[in-house]
Design a protein that fits this description.
It is a single chain. It is built from seven helices and five strands. The protein is mainly alpha-helical. Strands 4-3-5 form a three-stranded antiparallel beta sheet. A two-stranded antiparallel sheet has the order 1-2. A hairpin with a 4-residue loop joins strand 3 (70-73) and strand 4 (78-81).
C-alpha cells in the first residue's frame, strides 16, 4: 500500500518555525510565508556537514582521554589527572557509583554517540532500508542524552570552585577539558546537522511494514 508523503505532495516544513508550506520546484528562492526563511526539502549538505563534524570529534576524542583534565597542587603533592585516572581513583577509593557515572558520561557515552551517528550517516548515505524505525529512535536517543554530555566538565568546575574556596589546594583545568568540551560540542552540532528524514527517503512501504513485524 502506497502512502503519499509531504515530499511527494510538494510540501516542505520550514527549518526555522516549522510551518508547512508548498514549495515551487522551479523556484530555488522560495521562502517561508511566516518567517521568511529559505525553504528546503532537506537540510542542506546534511551528510557532508555531519561527517565533517564527526571526524573532527573523533580526532579530538583521543587527546580528550589522554591529556590531563585537571592539575592539583597542594603543600605536599602536585598531580595531574586524566578522565581514566579519575575513574580509577574513585573506584579504588570505594566510590564505585561515582566512578561508574564519570566513566559512563565521560568515556562511554561520547564513544557510543560517535559510533551511532556514524552508523546513521553511513546507512542514510547508502539508502539502506535496514530498520528505519529503530534508526529513528536511535537518533532521538542521541539527542536526548546530548544534554548530559557536559557532566564531566561540570564536575571539574564544581571541584575547582569548592577546593579553591576552602583553600585546601589549587586546582586548575587541564588541556584535556578543552578537547573533551570540543568533542561534546561537535557531536551535539553533528546531531543537529543530521536530517533524520534521510532515513526514510529510500524506504518503500513494504519495507516499512516488514520492519514493524
Amino acid at each position: 500500500m502506497k502512502y503519499l508523503t509531504a515530499k511527494d505532495a510538494g510540501l516542505v516544513a520550514c527549518m526555522s518555525c516549522g510551518l508547512l508550506s508548498r514549495r515551487v520546484p522551479t523556484d530555488e528562492s522560495t521562502r517561508c510565508p511566516r518567517c521568511n526563511a529559505p525553504l528546503h526539502q532537506r537540510k542542506v549538505d546534511s551528510l557532508a556537514r555531519t561527517w565533517a563534524l564527526l571526524i573532527a570529534a573523533a580526532i579530538l576524542y583521543i587527546p580528550a582521554n589522554l591529556l590531563p583534565m585537571m592539575h592539583t597542587r597542594s603543600l605536599l603533592v602536585s598531580q595531574s589527572d586524566t578522565i581514566m585516572s579519575g575513574v580509577i581513583y574513585f573506584w579504588t577509593s570505594g566510590e564505585w557509583e561515582l566512578a561508574a557515572v564519570v566513566f559512563t558520561a565521560s568515556i562511554l557515552v561520547p564513544m557510543l554517540k560517535l559510533i551511532a551517528l556514524a552508523l546513521l550517516c553511513f546507512t542514510a548515505q547508502r539508502g539502506s532500508p535496514w530498520k528505519p524505525r529503530q534508526r529513528t529512535k536511535l537518533y532521538h536517543l542521541i539527542e536526548f542524552i546530548g544534554r548530559w554530555s557536559m557532566l564531566d566538565v561540570f564536575v571539574v568546575a564544581l571541584m575547582v570552585a569548592l577546593v579553591n574556596i576552602q583553600s585546601l589546594a589549587v586546582i586548575q583545568a587541564g588541556p584535556g577539558i578543552v578537547a573533551f568540551g570540543s568533542v561534546v560540542v561537535l557531536t551535539m552540532i553533528a546531531s543537529l546537522q543530521f536530517d533524520p528524514r534521510l532515513i526514510w527517503d529510500q524506504i518503500q512501504d513494504d519495507a516499512y511494514y516488514q520492519d514493524d513485524d
